[in-house]
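Priority: medium. Attachment 1 of 2:
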C-alpha cells in the first residue's frame, strides 16, 4: 500500500463526512492535529514534560500531597479544610477558637466568662418557683450576680410560655452550642456591681424663654466663671523681664572671685541648714555669690 504524504494545510477535511483516503491521512498525521473535541483531551494537562533531572528526583519518596482530581477541581474551601482547617472540623466537645483562648481575635482584651448551661438554669428556675428562694440566695449559691439571676428567670419564663403554646424547642442545638462555648454550672462574679462614687449630677431644667448665662451655670456648679479663670491664668503668664532682672541684681551679691576655682561646665550651690538659711553660689568663672532667702525655691 502506498503512503500518501499530505500536510494539513493542503487538506480540508469536513467534520461531518469522511472518505477512506481522508481517514488514512488523519490517522497517519494524528499527532499534528491542533484541535480536539473529546472530553479526555479537553481536560488533559498541557504542561511540558519534566526534564530528566526532575524525573530522577521524582523517584525519591516525598510526603504525599492531597490528591486533587484532574477532571473535577476542588473548590478552595475544600482544600483549606484538608490543610489548615483540619483543626476546626468536627470538634464540638470543647471550645476551639481561632485565637486559642480568645473568643474574638480582633479584641484580645475582651475575655467573657463561659455561660451557664441549661441544666443549671433549670435548677435556678425550680428553686425560685417551687422552693421559694429569693434571687439573692440563688446568686450566693451559684456565684452569679443579681442581674444574671433576673435575666435567667425572665428567659425561663418565656421558655415555659413557648412550650405551653406547643412550640418545639431545639434541645440538640442548645447542647451543641453549650459544648462549643464551654458552658459550666457556676460563675465567679460579684453579687452586685461596685460603681465608683462620682457624686450626684448637677441637673436643673431651664425654660426656653429664660435667660441662662454662664454666671448662672457657674453658680449652679459652685465654680468660678470662665472669665475669672482666664483672668487668673493671664496674670500668671504675663510678667516683666526688667523687674525680675533688677530684683535678681538686688538679691544676689558678689562675695568674691577666685580664678583657680573656674569650672566651665557646672554651677555649685551651697545651702546652710538652720535658722538663717544662707545660699552661696559658685559660678563657672570662679565668682562667689550670696543669695538672699527670698530667692530660695
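Attachment 2 of 2:
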Amino acid at each position: 500500500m502506498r503512503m500518501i504524504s499530505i500536510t494539513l494545510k493542503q487538506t480540508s477535511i469536513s467534520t461531518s463526512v469522511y472518505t477512506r483516503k481522508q481517514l488514512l491521512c488523519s490517522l497517519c498525521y494524528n499527532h499534528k492535529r491542533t484541535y480536539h473535541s473529546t472530553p479526555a483531551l479537553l481536560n488533559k494537562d498541557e504542561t511540558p514534560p519534566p526534564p530528566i533531572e526532575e524525573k530522577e528526583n521524582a523517584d525519591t519518596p516525598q510526603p504525599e500531597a492531597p490528591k486533587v482530581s484532574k477532571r473535577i477541581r476542588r473548590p478552595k474551601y475544600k482544600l483549606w479544610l484538608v490543610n489548615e482547617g483540619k483543626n476546626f472540623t468536627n470538634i464540638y466537645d470543647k471550645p476551639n477558637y481561632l485565637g486559642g483562648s480568645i473568643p474574638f481575635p480582633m479584641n484580645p482584651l475582651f475575655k467573657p466568662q463561659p455561660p451557664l448551661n441549661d441544666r443549671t438554669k433549670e435548677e435556678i428556675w425550680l428553686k425560685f418557683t417551687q422552693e421559694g428562694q429569693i434571687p439573692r440566695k440563688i446568686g450566693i449559691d451559684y456565684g452569679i450576680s443579681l442581674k444574671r439571676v433576673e435575666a435567667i428567670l425572665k428567659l425561663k419564663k418565656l421558655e415555659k410560655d413557648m412550650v405551653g403554646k406547643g412550640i418545639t424547642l431545639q434541645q440538640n442545638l442548645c447542647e451543641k452550642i453549650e459544648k462549643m462555648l464551654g458552658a459550666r454550672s457556676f460563675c465567679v462574679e460579684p453579687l452586685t456591681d461596685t460603681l465608683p462614687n462620682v457624686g450626684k449630677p448637677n441637673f436643673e431644667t431651664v425654660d426656653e424663654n429664660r435667660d441662662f448665662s454662664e454666671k448662672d451655670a457657674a453658680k449652679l456648679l459652685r465654680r468660678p466663671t470662665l472669665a475669672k479663670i482666664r483672668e487668673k491664668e493671664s496674670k500668671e503668664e504675663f510678667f516683666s523681664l526688667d523687674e525680675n532682672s533688677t530684683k535678681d541684681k538686688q538679691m544676689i551679691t558678689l562675695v568674691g572671685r577666685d580664678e583657680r576655682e573656674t569650672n566651665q561646665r557646672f554651677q555649685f550651690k551651697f545651702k546652710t541648714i538652720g535658722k538663717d538659711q544662707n545660699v552661696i553660689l559658685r559660678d563657672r568663672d570662679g565668682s562667689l555669690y550670696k543669695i538672699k532667702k527670698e530667692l530660695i525655691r
